[in-house]
Design goal:
Length: 362
């Protein structure tokens, strides 16, 4: 993996588009001062947001795999009953379903090993077993394939119908995978995430839909991000996700509805995530002057470009906490570096509960 350095701080190139990286290189060559580099970078992110054609599209659905805890007794009883019935089918049918039936048998035996039990003790099981969506889809597909080879006189039809119904209900708990427009984190508390890519993690943690999974991912991201992404890269990803364009061909009324249910909520969640980051891991910022500088300049860009959100309580609360981080910094030069420009007017954060909203209407 290659990296591009911003004042000796490495940035993960594989999380950003080539055009974005080329513009960063251009900004670095033009300006030598770190503060100027970050300011120009933030201006570039804001001014080029309307050229992000896929800004409102989700990343591919296959970049996340969900799982759920299933009642082990109900699962194994359905499979055992089905396999027993299939074993009594005629030779002609057996030849056609041998591979699919063997797949079901393999899964059944695997589940028994995971649970530490045997086929005779299935009816006494009380625990649950975790199944991811790929396993459930595989089993459902094999059962459906078997159903196409059974004759109308088959004695296994009832067991097939029951098994298909059981696994179909499990699949319906997962988000749809046929269209990215329906790729929303599930609201069902039984469903959780087994695997997810970094960019999909950022997407889900800042998703407009407020779900239990989004809250879990917010915590996971901040607690473990340094294992898979560098802090400056994560900050830039959140910045790019904050500044998203207005969708094309929308009327003013449609756009106002879109703002309420999508962009405004997403921005609110990003502010919440940054606040959580500052609260949970303040040392990340006090020991990394690049990260603290970029955070402050990002917040100042909101004062400049997004005044509607700049007067909201959660944003002002974050700004107050960031100012405390600046005070904790022992380097005088760092304080000078990230001090807000004089031409930007900002509220007095000690009076946070009564923000001076008029300052943003000018």
């Amino acid at each position: 993996m290659t990296h591009i350095a911003i004042n000796s701080t490495e940035l993960d190139e594989n999380f950003f588009e080539e055009d974005f990286l080329l513009n960063i290189r251009g900004i670095e060559k033009t300006f030598s001062n770190r503060k100027q580099i970050f300011q120009k970078l933030m201006e570039y992110v804001f001014t080029c947001k309307n050229f992000q054609e896929n800004a409102h599209k989700n990343y591919p659905r296959n970049e996340v795999i969900y799982y759920q805890d299933v009642n082990a007794r109900a699962l194994l009883k359905k499979l055992k009953h089905l396999i027993d019935n299939l074993n009594h089918e005629g030779v002609a049918v057996q030849m056609q379903i041998i591979n699919a039936k063997q797949c079901l048998t393999t899964h059944f035996e695997k589940f028994l090993r995971v649970l530490g039990t045997n086929a005779e003790s299935v009816h006494r099981l009380k625990q649950t077993i975790s199944l991811d969506e790929t396993e459930i889809k595989t089993i459902y597909g094999k059962i459906f394939k078997i159903s196409t080879h059974l004759t109308y006189k088959s004695t296994s039809k009832e067991a097939i119908r029951n098994a298909l119904s059981f696994f179909r209900k499990l699949l319906l708990k997962f988000p749809a995978d046929h269209s990215n427009s329906d790729d929303r984190a599930p609201v069902n508390a039984d469903v959780d995430i087994k695997f997810i890519t970094v960019r999909k993690l950022v997407e889900k943690a800042t998703e407009a839909v407020d779900t239990l999974i989004a809250e879990k991912l917010k915590q996971i991201m901040i607690l473990t991000y340094d294992h898979f992404i560098k802090p400056l890269s994560l900050m830039l990803l959140l910045t790019k996700r904050y500044y998203t364009p207005r969708p094309f061909a929308m009327t003013d009324q449609e756009y106002n509805m879109f703002k309420v249910h999508h962009s405004n909520t997403r921005r609110k969640r990003i502010i919440e995530l940054l606040t959580y980051w500052v609260d949970l891991r303040p040392n990340d910022f006090t020991v990394n002057s690049d990260l603290l500088a970029l955070l402050v300049i990002f917040l100042e860009s909101i004062f400049k470009f997004d005044k509607e959100h700049a007067c909201k309580k959660d944003f002002l609360e974050l700004y107050r906490k960031v100012e405390k981080l600046i005070e904790k910094s022992k380097e005088v030069t760092k304080k000078e570096l990230i001090r807000p420009p004089k031409q930007i007017r900002r509220p007095h954060t000690m009076d946070i509960l009564r923000p001076n909203v008029t300052a943003f209407r000018k």
